[in-house]
Amino acid sequence: MKKLLVSPSPHIHGKDNTRNLMRDVIIALLPSLAVSIYFFGFSALRLTLIGVAACVAVEYLIEKYMLRTKVTIGDYSAAVTGILLAMNLPPNAPWWIMVIGSIVAIGIAKMTFGGLGQNLFNPALVGRVFLLVSFPVIMTDWTMPDSWFGSAIDASSGATPLGIVKEALSKGETLQQIFAEHDFSYTQMLFARVGSVGEISALALLIGLVYLLVRKVIAPHIPIAILGTVAVFSGILWGVDSTRYTDPLFNLLTGGVLLGSIFMATDYVTSPMSHKGMVIYGIGIGIITVLIRQFGSYPEGISFAILIMNATVPLINMYVKPKRFGRK
Amino acid sequence: MKTFSIGGVHPCDSKISAGAAIENFPIPEVAYISMSQHLGAPAEPVVAAGDKVKTGQLIAKANGFISAPVHSSVSGTVKSIEMVKDLAGNLCKAVIIDVEGDEWMEGIDRSEDIVREIKLDQKEIIARIAECGIVGLGGATFPTNVKLSPPPGKKAEFLIINGAECEPYLTSDYRVMIEMPEQVLIGAAIMMKALGVTKGFVGIEENKPEAIRVLSGYSEKYPDIQIVPLKKKYPQGGEKQLIDAVVGRQVPSMGLPIDTGAVVQNVGTALAVYEAVQKNKPLFEGILTVTGECCPQQRNFKHRVGTPISKIIEAVGGVPEEAVKVISGGPMMGKAMCNIDAPTLKGSSSVLFLTEKQTKRKEEGNCIRCAKCVSVCPMGLEPYLLNKLGRAGRMDDLEANRVYDCIECGCCSFTCPAYIPLLDMIRLAKGQVMRIMRSRPKN
To answer: Measured between CB atoms, which of B334, B338, B368 is closest to A18?
Structure first.
C-alpha cells in the first residue's frame, strides 16, 4: 500500500516567498540604479556592488562563524540592504566607507537583534546615519564624479537643492532671492538632480513604486501617507510664509523623500502590520521630515524620521488593530 | 461585482473537472454506512445484524437535538454493526450491509418529473427535512432542520443559497447548478417557505458563468430568488463571508448568521431538500468530484453513501503514481486522508489527488513581518501575532486578540512567504482558548 502524506489544511501554498519578494524589491530598484549609472558611471555601479558584496559577506560570516547557525543569504535580504545603503550614499564616496556602513547595517542593526525579521530599525538607514554622523564631510560631498556618458546635471553644483536653500536661508536670504540665483527646474528634478546615488531621478523611483504596487509587494498606505503628509504640512508652512518655507512640490521632489517613502519606510520588518498602523506611521514620518527640514540643523530629515518612527512600531502594533470582521 | 469586504486570497482555479457530467457510480457490493454523518451526536442504529433493509429505509435514528437520522443507501442484509475507520483513521460506528439488488422503499418518487407545487406547510416541511436526515452539504454537515428553525427571538429575513464553490478543484455544486437548476431553485423556495421569508439569493462566483446564465434563465418563474454573481475570491463560500458579500451585513463576533437575518444553505442541500420534500427521498446519495492534475480522469459521480472511497479511486485507475496526498474536500480546507478505504459520507464532496510539488510543505523561515497574513485574513485577525502568542501559550492575549473568530480558512498559511504554518498553531490555540471560555461559569 502506497504511503500517503497527511497534514492539516491548507494543502496548497501561494506563489509568494521571501526570496521572490526581495527579488522584486531589487527589480524595483533597477530603474534608479540604471539612471545613476548613466549619470555617475562606474562609481555608482562600483558602490552598489561593494555594498551588496559587503552586506552579504558580513551576514555570511556572522551566521557561519559567530552564531554557527543556518546561513540565510539566499533570501536576498542582505543584498537588498546593500543596494539600499549604496543608494543613500553620495556617488563618489570611497569604497571603505561602504564597507563600514555594511558592517554597521548588517552586523549591528540586523544580526544583533536576531537576523531577518527581528530588527527594530531599518539596517540600511542605521548604516547611513552612522556614516552621516561619523563622516559628515564625505557624506555631504555632492561633487560629480566623472561619468561615462557626460553629465546632464550641472557639474558645478556641489550641494543639493535642500542644502543650498538651508544655507542661504541661514544667511538671511529669502526664498525668492535663492530661487532667482539658482535654477531649480522642477522638470529637471523629475528626471535628474543632485543627490545620493538613489535619489537622482524622481521618475525612476516612481517607476519602482508602481512596480512594487502592481506586484503587490507593498501596500500603498505608507508611501501615500508620507508623501501626502509632507505635501500638506509643507504646504501649510509655505502658505504661512512663502519667503521662509519652500513649496510642497519642491519638498516632494528634492532630497530623499521619494527614496525613503518608497524603499526605506516600507521595509517589512520595521513597519507596522495593520493598514491603519501604516497610515499613522507614514504621517509621523512625514511630519518629522518636514520639521527637521524646516527647523532642524540638517537640510534633510527623512532618515531620522524613519528611524524615529521605527521605534514606535511595536507600540503601534500593540494598540492599532486591523478592522475586525463583525465589530460595530 | 459584489464580494466580501475584508481580506481573501486568489488561489488557482483548477476547475478541471467542470466539464464532466454527473454519472451514477455503481452500487458497491458492501456498504459501510457511518453513524457519524453529521455534526453532533452519532445516530443510533435501529436495525440489527441479519435484518433485511431496502434502499431509503431508516437504519438509525437521530440521537439528540443536534443529530440526524441515517438511511440505508442500498438494499440487502445487515451484516453487522461495528466500528470502522473513517478517513482520518478514527473509529466510528457503522452499519455494514451486504448488497442484494437495489430495491427502493415504497413512497419514494423515482421519476424524473419535476414537482413544482409545494404542498406541505411550514411545520411539515421542517419535519420532513428532519425525517429524511438532510444535513448541510457545504462542509459542516450541520442538521438542516435545526438551521431552518431559528431560536426564539430571532427572525429570518432571507435565505442565501451558497453556490460560491470558492475552493479550487471542486465542481460538484457547479454540476448540480447546471444539470438540475430548477430542482435547486424549488429546494430554495421550499426552505424560504419553511423560514417564512419571501426573499432568496443564490450567490455564485463569476468563474461559473454557465451556472449564472442557466439559473438566471429561471428568474421569471422564481422571481423571489435573485441570482447574485460574485467576484472570484476565496473564502467567499464561508458562511460569514457569503452573507457579507451578498447583502453587506457582518455576522457579529461570537454571533450566528441568523443575527443578520440570513440563513445560508448550500446548493447540494437545496437539491436534497427538494428531493426530500417533493420526492419523499431521504438523503443517501451525494455528488462527488474526483480530480487532480495528476489524475488521468476527471469525474463527477453520484455515489451511494457508504461506498468505500477506494472503490471510487479504483474506477479512475487507482491512486496516481505522482500523487502523494489524497484529500477529501478542497485543497484549502479539505482533510488529507490516511485511510482511503473509509466509506463516503453524506457530506463527501471530492477526492482530490495532489502531487509532491503541489502540496509538500517547504522549510519554514523567519517571519519577515510583511503583514500579508494580516491583509488576507477575512476575519480581520493578526495571524502572525496569534501564532507567536500560541507558541508562548499566552491564553489571555490570544482571547483578547479574538483567536476564537478564526474560521480556519487557511489564507494566512497559504500566503505566508516564509512558509510558516500559521493555521496549524492558530487552530491548536483556538481549541485551547475555546475550551477555557466554555469552562467559565455563565452569568
So the answer is: B368
Q: Which three cell numbers stand for residue A261?
A: 517613502
Distances in Å between the Cα of B51 and the Cα atoms of A148, B10, B79, B307 are 95, 51, 8, 20
**Phi and psi based region of residue B76 (left: phi greater than 0; alpha: psi -120 to 50; beta: remaining):** left
Q: Does residue A202 carry a pLDDT above 90?
A: no
Contact (Cβ atoms closer than 8 angstroms) between residue B102 and residue B315: no
The CATH classification number of B1-22+108-360 equals: 3.40.50.11540
Centre a 10 Å sphere on the Cβ of residue A311 and count the other Cβ atoms it contains: 11
In this complex, do A117 and B359 lie within 8 Å of one another by their Cβ atoms? no
Omega before B252 cis (within 30°)? no
Quote the DSSP letter at residue A260. Answer: I
Q: What is the pTM of this model?
A: 0.91
Residue B434 has a CB neighbour count (10 Å cut-off) of 13
Residue B336 and residue B274 in contact, taking contact as beta carbons nearer than 8 Å: no
**pLDDT at position B390 over 90:** yes
- Plot region of B7 (φ>0 → left; ψ -120 to 50 → alpha; else → beta): left
For an interface test with A, the pick among B244, B319, B370, B382 (most A C-beta atoms closer than 10 Å) comes out as B370
Nearest beta carbon to residue A11 from set B338, B354, B419 = B354
B321 touches chain A (CB under 8 A): no
Task: Give the separation between CA A9 and CA A272, rounded to whole angstroms.
Answer: 28
Residue A132 φ then ψ, to 5°:
-65, -45
Contacts of A75 in chain B (CB under 8 A): 365
Complex prediction ipTM:
0.90
Tell me, what's the pLDDT at A144? 62
Residues 6 or more apart whose Cβ sits within 8 Å of residue A21: A217, A268, B368, B370, B417
Helix (H) / strand (E) element for A178: namely: helix A175-181
What pLDDT is stored for residue B8 in this prediction?
94
Are B41 and B64 in contact, with CB atoms under 8 Å apart? Answer: yes
pLDDT (tens digit, 9 = 90+) per residue, A130-164?
A: 999 999 888 887 766 555 554 444 444 456 778 77
Write the CA distances from B95 to B31, B43, B76, integer angstroms: 8, 11, 12
Q: Is B379 on the interface with A (CB under 8 A)?
A: yes
Could you tell me if A94 and A56 are in contact, meaning their C-beta atoms sit under 8 angstroms apart?
A: no
Confirm if B230 and B197 have CB atoms less than 8 A apart. no
Determine, for residues A17 and B424 on separate chains, whether the beta-carbon distance falls below 8 Å.
no
Q: Where are the domains of chain B?
A: 1-22+108-360, 372-439
Of the candidates A308, A318, A322, the residue with the CA atom closest to the CA atom of residue A120? A308
Q: Which amino acid is at B415?
A: T
Assigned C-alpha cell, B240: 460569514
Q: Does B325 touch chain A (CB under 8 A)?
A: yes
B340 in A contact zone (CB under 8 Å)? yes
How many inter-chain contacts (A to B, CB under 8 Å) are there? 160
Terminal-to-terminal C-alpha distance of chain A = 54
Lowest mean pLDDT among A168-177, A245-254, B413-422: A168-177
Is beta strand B158-163 parallel, antiparallel or unpaired with respect to B200-205? parallel
Which of A17, A269, A325 shows the shortest C-beta gap to B240?
A: A325
Asked if residue B299 lies in contact with residue B23, where contact means CB atoms within 8 angstroms, the answer is yes
| Contact B226/A at CB under 8 A | no
Q: How far is CA A78 from CA A81, A83, A100, in A?
A: 5, 9, 15
For the record, the C-alpha cell of B372 comes out as 500579508
**CA atoms of B240 and A322, how far apart (whole Å):** 18
First-to-final CA distance of chain B: 44
Quote the minimal CA–CA distance from B315 to chain A in Å.
Answer: 17
The mean pLDDT of B315-342, rounded to a whole number, is 93
At B389, list the grid cell.
502568542
